[in-house]
């Protein structure tokens, strides 16, 4: 199906269907918008009201495409409703995104991830594939997530954080980190192969996390050590910084009603 | 105004006006050159002799463009004279650049920064917006500058340096770092929320700067500590490394005359 | 020579010669494939069976192109046989790649490097130029290699590693690191100006390497210290992790026959 023939027409934003390529068996909701210079490969579906900005590649083929193109079948790629994928993204085939997925620019998402709803990937984020992401998880710029990672709901990951899956490189059996709901991971932190980080944790900037972290703990340093319970941070000033949902609402499902009220309604 | 209709024609470099989009109210000096595959959005002005290489986006719209395109007005973007913006840059609307602005490839500059003259941004640099930059400041590759930062004249920032604006993430009140004139920031250093770094300082590689630095100080480590006065570096060898303008002239306004003579003429 | 006129036609993969620019004196083997939206500048040669995916720039001109286009001559760029350059690469003029060169996405390779055979550069890798690379060397994502570096055979470099060539920045006399065959460099490590790292070494994550490393050593920390002989790692568990070729074969020339047998045949 070629896009200009698909009955899909009205674009309010500056998308002129200029230099656009659309492969076979592509389903684009009538209310979705596709930018100029995009390439949409086979077997992609894009949900209602989603926007794919300029210069994006959706459904990038896997290696077999180059080595055995005769027999290659592109895995399905599903982008839910209300996505906003900013320009120059490369999204591989075999990914499934929930609704309200958004990105900065130039993100790269390799194959076979599952994302929940309301996920956001910042500019230059590099997702290596085969991972599972919860709802409302966010990366800031230049985050690198290795293969076989698991990231919970409401996790926020700041610039240049890297997840690794290999202790004695190179390896043939990668094992990614797991991060629990609500955890915050500050800039430049490294999570090592197979570590399990609890929920509501805080990882300090530049930390090297090589051991598991219990719920509500704050670790920092290289090698990282337990500093305190996150709920103790700010106590000397009479403040409560964590759990952070008690003081931060923007874009969260508890916006306007408060985290504790929202929890009761869950 | 569409570019090919604008009376702007002669391109010596390989720019064929191939696949070019130019929005409304765009002003391009007759001596400027625009590369193939570029997108220039509304309300951009580009000064004399400036070169925008291939595949650049200038005046990238802000979020309102996607959420309320009917009422969206793109803020003005001003690029001065003698710019050389290398390929694949994304420059948001609402930025103002002085003359002789240059970049490596794939830089991203979000909205509402003011840059002086002779600034350079290295490949993969990521400027988050709402910041002020002096004259002759340079980033090397993959530098990340958070919102609400201030960077002085002749500051040089090396690969993977990150400026942060948040101590207990996430925050609703970001506060960026401030860096004084002539300061050098080595690879992988982190500048924390709201720190004030003086002039002629040196920040060692991988340093984590969480406290203010007086003029002419050298800090290093994580957490960073005062090591010495920068003017003492090299003394044991009978050398003077800092202030660096005494020994480095290439591309600087004191090239050929020396820093001290130049200072007298200021 | 314009590509569609060159007698080069059959493309099995989705490359429609859409929006393609090819300069003068470009030689493309008949079995090679060039993706859409590519720009191939003057004096490039591409070997048999090589694939240049979409949106690549090959032979990117040096600065003289912009400052003195009348007299500018683009240096030769040679890409050997069986390359797979994934989308959005920028390869400068003046580079020479052996056979079986491959990349992730958005790599940038500046001018005047020499690469052996079977090299791989990961997504977002940034090679600054004037360096020499052996056979079977690999970078993972977001590796930054400074000018005037030397990297041996079978070296593997993990995300966010940075090579530097300057102790007291800025400098006018850069001197890059040298890394011996088979060495592994873990995430976030920094190699300092002029260090010499031996063969079969291991550099721990986040290490700051400011002194030379003898063959078969494991260094870690900031500043990095000698931890042990790599051959001692795993001994307590009755395992041998290094030399790693004894336990890792995928994609290596000793695949199927074993490293020691392969060595005998060398």
The fraction of residues assigned to DSSP E strands of chain A is: 25-35%
Mind summarizing the main beta sheet of chain A?
8 strands, mixed
How would you state the average pLDDT of chain A, rounded?
A: 92
How many domain modules of chain A? 1
State the fourth-level CATH superfamily of chain A. Answer: Hexapeptide repeat proteins
Spans of chain A with pLDDT under 50 lasting ≥5 residues?
1-13
Shape of chain A: globular
Largest interface: A-B, 40 and 36 residues
Using only C-alpha atoms, the radius of gyration of chain A works out to 20 Å
Distance between the termini of chain A: 42 Å
- Give the count of helical stretches of chain A: 2
Lateral strand order in the biggest sheet of chain A:
12-15-18-21-24-27-29-30
Structural class of chain A: mainly beta
Helix content of chain A: under 10%
> For the record, what CATH class of chain A applies?
Mainly Beta
């Amino acid at each position: 199906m070629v896009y200009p023939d698909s009955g899909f027409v009205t674009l309010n934003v500056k998308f002129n269907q200029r230099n656009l390529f659309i492969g076979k068996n592509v389903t684009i909701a009538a209310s979705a918008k596709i930018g100029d210079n995009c390439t949409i490969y086979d077997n992609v579906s894009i949900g209602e009201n989603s926007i794919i900005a300029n210069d994006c590649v959706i459904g990038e083929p896997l290696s077999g495409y180059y080595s055995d193109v005769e027999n290659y079948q592109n895995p399905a790629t599903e982008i839910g409703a209300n996505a906003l994928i900013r320009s120059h993204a490369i999204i591989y085939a075999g990914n499934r995104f929930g609704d309200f997925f958004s990105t900065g620019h130039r993100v790269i998402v390799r194959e076979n991830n599952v994302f929940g709803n309301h996920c956001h990937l910042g500019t230059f984020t590099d997702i290596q594939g085969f991972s599972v992401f919860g709802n409302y998880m966010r990366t800031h710029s230049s985050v690198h997530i290795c293969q076989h990672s698991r990231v919970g709901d409401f996790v926020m990951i700041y610039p240049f954080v890297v997840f690794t899956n290999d202790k004695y490189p190179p390896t043939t059996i990668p094992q990614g980190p797991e991060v629990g709901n609500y955890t915050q991971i500050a800039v430049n932190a490294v999570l090592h192969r197979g570590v399990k980080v609890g929920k509501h944790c805080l990882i300090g900037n530049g930390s090297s996390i090589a051991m598991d972290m219990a719920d509500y703990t704050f670790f920092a340093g290289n090698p990282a050590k337990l500093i305190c319970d996150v709920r103790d941070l700010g106590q000397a000033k009479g403040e409560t910084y964590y759990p952070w949902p008690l003081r931060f609402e923007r874009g969260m499902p508890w916006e306007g009603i408060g985290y504790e009220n929202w929890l009761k309604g869950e």
